[in-house]
Amino acid sequence: MNKNYRFLLHVMLATAITSFIVLNHALALTNPQNNGVGLQGEVSAPPPSVAASIVSPANGANFTNVPITLTGSCPANTLVKIFKNGVFGGAIACQNGSYSIQVDLFSGQNELKATVYDALNQAGPDSNVVTINYSNTVANPSLSSLVTLTSNFGQRGANPKQELDWPIIISGGTAPYAVSVDWGDLSPSDVYSQTSVGQFTIRHTYQQSGVFKVLIKAVDQNGTAAFLQLSGVANGQVVQSSVAGASTTKTPSVSSVTWQVFAFSFSAIIVTFWLGRGFGTKTVKSKLQRGEHPFGE
Predict the structure, then answer these.
(1) Do 143 and 275 reside in the same domain of the chain?
(2) Which helix (H) or strand (E) holds 286?
């Protein structure tokens, strides 16, 4: 075989191998697959070194209504958890270097602080402490305690179109309780009825990837209310969205990547063919001009 055509075949073979490697990488986007084996590891990293700050409310502020809005700054790619008198009071993902979260209060004095956590759940430094006061003018003074909502999870996630379950703890007040959950994705709020204190589970299925503000409200038999804001995650690459309080993602599908690979491979083969054809034609003409056999070695 003519060495020029052997060279052409080598180029085409290299193109095919490259296309196979790229296609194999594209198909990996669908993992985990059926009958596949998954590997999971943890990469160690130092905890956040920059603390969040509480900008509003100001120290010494007084309130008669809850929830209040807490705002401040935070380092990128962290989860901001709010604590009131040392008790977890809500969480929100830091976005663009700042956060804004609705927080319930205890009756009387509340010491508020914010702590940031990274993806490995490592805590960073505490923020400045802000002390404020809440006068509960709505609740009946004869009540022994107010309703409280909390959770062991400030952030929880699942894949889009898969059910997310979230344990919530309710205490205080007088049962039964009516609980509403706004999942932050413009879907109708879920309503739960709890007949006693303790842990119960809320559930939701997000339709698209993103990070969402989850606002939970509980009202007891006497009309006393409690609030808790958390951060719900539907797994995927996050980009800005038109959904209020959420960021969503668009990930290329395997079919679109496959067609891109096919288009690249086909184009490469066509280009290789025409280059080879042009090179071969030029070689044949040159040999004919020298009086040599056009397909000889």
Answers:
(1) no
(2) helix 254-289
